[in-house]
Amino acid sequence: MVMTLSPMVQVSCDICSVAQKQGLYFKVDIPLWILFPKDYVSCVPKSSELAFLQRRQGLRAIAAIKHHHRGQSDQPLMISNAGEKKLMQKRGKKEHHLWRKRDSASSGQKALNLVHTISGLPNEKEAVYGALDKWIAWETEYPLIAAAKALRILRKRNQWKRIIQVVKWMLSKGQGATMATYDCLLLAFDMERRVDEAEILWNIILHSHNRSISKRLFSRMISLCDHHNVPDKVIEVFADMEELGVKPDEDTVRRVARAFEVVGQVDKQRLVMKKYGSKWKYIHFKGERVRVNEIS
């Protein structure tokens, strides 16, 4: 596009040509010396101060036009590309998650699959461990929630051998070393009459989790030793319980007192009952539940 300022001067308008190519048309009544200060000032003789002011005003006008052009280009435009019109739209930001969320919704089905898989297997370590390895072969992380649910199902079905196999496999993988898992394994040892393995496991728990053993776990071990008539082990576990400052419940107190009675230490039996025994007991009197003092 060529504009004529005088018979002697011609000025090329690059901005207007670019706007015309992109389909932008605007009409403004601005003096030519503001729009094109460089060419106009060079052809019209003026003083140096006036030329400087006109040049600065012209640059401001050009900056305003460019800003207007930039604002128009941010909006979706219909442009032609190889004879076809395409709508240019802004794309939204795509969110990228750098972690995986544990999905507990499908853990129940995984637990049932595990129970069905190992229920029909023979009682051989290689067969059971191989099936368990296949169960987690395509998992991105260890399915600890599904394994805990599977142990709960096996416990309701009284499949104690399978519980022992699954828990030992979990511990060999370095998973599931929690008090609930240990409690389930001790109960399975109790039901399967594996007192020696229970003692080995208890020593491992005592040395590994010295300050975090719960009252429930102490009660489970004392109950196991009492079921299989091992009073010395009952007294030993109770001594560790007292050393760690864990207060026994009423059932544990009765078992410990009975163990002291079996070994012939009646004085310690009375001391345990006096220190940890409850002062009250409940009896039924005339059809009602009444609390009475045991000492009286």
TrEMBL record:
Keywords: Repeat. PPR repeats lie at residues 214-248. The keyword NADP does not apply. InterPro entries: EMB1417-like, PPR_rpt, TPR-like_helical_dom_sf. This is Pentacotripeptide-repeat region of PRORP domain-containing protein. It comes from the Eukaryota. The keyword Lyase does not apply.
